[in-house]
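Request: Mind sharing a record?
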Amino acid sequence: MFTFMRSHEDHGLHSWYKGALALNALLWLILSLSGCSSSGKEYVVDYTRGNDSTAEGSRDRPCQTEMQCQKLAERDGVQSYWMVYQ
């Protein structure tokens, strides 16, 4: 039968590691939440007219995929579009 004894140095290292891991997890959570709250809004832009006007309604409900942006562009009569990230 084997017994395992931890020295104070091992315990301090283990505590430091747990603290660093918890701090890293907290930092990751804060960054991911701030990324979600300020994530890029995507909307259709008609750049063939030389302006930044968006397809109607797309600023209020930004599209999340290229296909959704294309549907908005076709619905609003925009021939060319970009997905713009704000």
Remarks:
- The longest strand covers residues 42-45.
